[in-house]
């Protein structure tokens, strides 16, 4: 919301809050359940580390209207990709300076909180950067984390978009 206040031209409009038809509501509920279950089973089948990222992506991307699902999926994919890449570059640039990495971590956390309702792509960017920084600060591998997060986001997003088409949302 803060981002939308200071930069309204860059903020994505908030979704329409008009009620949806009961028939469409049930299709959305069923599509969401099928998407989440399919994403989790697929992630486990492929042996993805942090397999919960795929169903979480499917759940967060799927919307009652197909256009909104597609737009949200694109925003999440681009935001996740850029957030992971930027965080990885920061980690390799400042790997010897813990205070600088902690500063960037605090910056991404605060920015993610500020972006929650302002712009989904920027929110995804900040959340992904935060996750990569957290795992790297805990002595994890930022490249592997980036890879796993992108694969899970692609899997969950692809399933969400497919379910939106199948259930004619």
Automatic annotation (TrEMBL):
One of its GO terms (cellular component) is plasma membrane. The keyword DNA-binding does not apply. Keywords: Cell membrane, Membrane, Transmembrane, Transmembrane helix. PANTHER family: MULTIDRUG RESISTANCE PROTEIN MDTO (PTHR30509:SF9), P-HYDROXYBENZOIC ACID EFFLUX PUMP SUBUNIT-RELATED (PTHR30509). Belongs to the YccS/YhfK family. Residues 39-162 form the Integral membrane bound transporter domain. Coiled coil: none annotated. The chain crosses the membrane at residues 28-46, 77-94, 100-115, 120-138, 150-167. Its main location: membrane. InterPro entries: Memb_transporter_dom. Pfam families: FUSC_2. It comes from Pasteurella testudinis DSM 23072. It is found in: Cell membrane. It is a multi-pass membrane protein. This is Predicted membrane protein. It comes from the Bacteria.
């Amino acid at each position: 919301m803060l981002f939308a206040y200071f930069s309204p031209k860059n903020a994505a409009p908030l979704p329409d809050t008009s009620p949806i038809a009961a028939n469409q509501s049930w299709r959305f509920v069923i599509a969401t359940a099928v998407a989440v279950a399919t994403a989790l089973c697929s992630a486990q089948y492929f042996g993805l580390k942090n397999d919960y990222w795929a169903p979480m992506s499917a759940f967060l991307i799927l919307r009652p209207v197909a256009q909104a699902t597609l737009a949200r999926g694109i925003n999440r994919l681009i935001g996740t990709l850029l957030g992971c890449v930027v965080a990885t570059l920061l980690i390799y640039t400042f790997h010897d300076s813990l205070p600088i990495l902690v500063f960037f971590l605090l910056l991404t956390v605060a920015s993610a909180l500020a972006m929650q309702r302002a712009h989904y792509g920027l929110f995804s960017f900040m959340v992904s950067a935060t996750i990569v920084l957290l795992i790297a600060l805990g002595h994890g591998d930022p490249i592997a984390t980036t890879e796993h997060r992108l694969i899970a986001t692609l899997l969950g997003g692809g399933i969400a978009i497919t379910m939106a088409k199948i259930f004619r949302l």
